[in-house]
Amino acid sequence: MHRSIQRHTLFYIIRYRLTQVRQQLGFTTALSLEDIVEVERWLPSSALSLFQTMSDADQQHSLRVCRGLQQCGCKENDLLAAALLHDVGKAQGRVPFWTRPAIVLGKHFAPRLLARLVISPSMFESQRIPGWRRALSYAWWHADVGADFAASAGLSERAVLYIRTHHQPDGPAALLHEVDEVS
User: Fold this and answer.
1) Which domain holds residue 64?
2) What's this model's pTM, rounded to 2 decimal places?
3) Which of 10, 27, 60, 75, CA to CA, is 20 to 30 A from 17?
């Protein structure tokens, strides 16, 4: 773990998850003008509309992750841009609120069942997928979906790789993963 990121305590994790619930229920504000200027600093203009597709809560979270990386000494443009779009695969209603706790709890208590329930979004066109399963699958595969969107929006291959691998603790975006876990 990076030296500037503190270890999780059970109390911290519970508080963090409850804060997430509160934010996802709409108890969060839109970005300020100052925040938007910071987002524009790290994202190419072609990706700004993609960032805007995210909920206010996800935009706030992504900006916290970007700032957390900077506090860890990160100055890499591609990683900071990836931080701002790492959850864009959840945007536009693909991942409704209920799927987030289902994924967190499923990973912890029933990982094999969860793995059997989710389907790659590439299979959506060839199969009729119930809405609940589609939403759960988007939640599971949001990193890949978001990486594809980021590539289409003109982000560099490296930034796209960071988005695609941001859930891998030992992957190319390990620092992004660490900061994301506590932001």
Assistant:
1) 10-182
2) 0.84
3) 75
Say yes or no to pLDDT of 140 above 90. yes
Euclidean distance between CA atoms 166 and 49, whole angstroms? 21
As a whole number of angstroms, the distance between CA 121 and CA 105 comes to: 21
Domain for residue 177, yes or no?
yes
Spatial contact of 162 and 82, defined as CB atoms under 8 Å apart: yes
Q: Going along 12-117, which residue ranges are E strands?
A: none
Q: What is the DSSP letter of 2?
A: -
> Domain total for the chain?
1
Nearest alpha carbon to residue 87 among 50, 118, 123, 115: 50
Asked whether residue 81 is domain-assigned, the answer is: yes
Both tokens assigned to 19? 């804060």
Q: Is residue 51 a contact partner of residue 85, using CB atoms and an 8 Å limit?
A: yes
Cα–Cα nearest to 179, from 79, 95, 96: 79
Q: How far apart are CA 163 and CA 183, in angstroms?
A: 16
Are 139 and 99 within 8 A, CB to CB? yes
Say which residue the tokens 């994790």 belong to.
13
pLDDT digits (tens, 9 = 90+) for 65-116: 999 999 999 999 999 999 999 999 999 988 888 888 888 888 889 999 999 9
Q: Three-state SS for 164?
A: helix
Please check whether residue 1 lies inside any domain of the structure: no
